[in-house]
């Protein structure tokens, strides 16, 4: 309310202006903190038959051309997430994963391994991530602690130190395509 009373007394040179009883921010109408009104504006920009349930970005751009409120993009995101029609008919935007192929059965111990990270753990001696390396034949595992953030070089060094040094270089490595594992360095 302080902004409204200040605007009523003086015409500021900043991004806020007042005309005909409305407050404008950079030429767009400032919408008060009224969830019902904001939802109605978003509804009109995306849920009518003409608009056809456009996505978050397109809806945000339509609303933002005329209106402004704090955390407007988040309001639009939340609205789209609550839309039953959009969630029921949402298309997958990723390319198809391809045909699943069965994994071959390993012949020797530590020839074929799988690797992954367990991240987001509470700190323990400055470490919060576990690098897990599992032999696919006998399910023997090595757990190597890391501190986040880590690089592909740091992970490769730990891999050589904790696995290759003990068991030799594996013939195949299966991972979940983590950016560290698909980097050119790795």
- pLDDT below 50 for ≥5 consecutive residues: which ranges? 1-10
Question: What is the number of independent domains?
Answer: 2
Strand order of the largest sheet: 1-2-3-4
Series of H and E elements: HEEEHHEHHEEEHE
Reading off the top of the CATH hierarchy, the class of the largest domain is best stated as Mainly Alpha
The dominant shape is elongated
> Percent of residues in beta strands?
15-25%
Which structural class is indicated by helix and strand composition? alpha/beta
Distance between the termini: 57 Å
CATH architecture of the largest domain: Orthogonal Bundle
Rg, Cα atoms, Å: 27 Å
Q: How many strands, what sense, and barrel or not for the largest sheet?
A: 4 strands, mixed
How confident overall, as mean pLDDT? 83
- What's the β-strand tally? 8
CATH topology of the largest domain: Endonuclease III, domain 1
């Amino acid at each position: 309310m302080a902004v409204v009373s200040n605007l009523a007394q003086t015409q500021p040179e900043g991004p806020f202006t007042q005309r005909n009883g409305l407050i404008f921010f950079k030429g767009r109408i400032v919408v008060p903190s009224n969830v019902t009104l904001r939802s109605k504006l978003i509804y009109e920009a995306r849920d009518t038959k003409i608009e056809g349930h456009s996505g978050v970005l397109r809806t945000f751009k339509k609303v933002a051309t005329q209106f402004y409120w704090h955390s407007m993009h988040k309001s639009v995101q939340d609205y789209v997430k609550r839309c039953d029609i959009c969630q029921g008919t949402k298309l997958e935007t990723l390319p198809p994963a391809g045909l699943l192929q069965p994994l071959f059965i390993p012949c020797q111990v530590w020839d074929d391994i799988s690797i992954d990270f367990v991240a987001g753990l509470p700190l323990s001696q400055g470490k919060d991530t576990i690098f897990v390396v599992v032999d696919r034949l006998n399910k023997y595992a090595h757990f190597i602690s890391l501190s986040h953030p880590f690089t592909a070089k740091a992970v490769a060094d730990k891999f050589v130190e904790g696995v290759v040094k003990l068991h030799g270089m594996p013939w195949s490595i299966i991972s979940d395509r983590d950016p560290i594992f698909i980097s050119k360095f790795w």
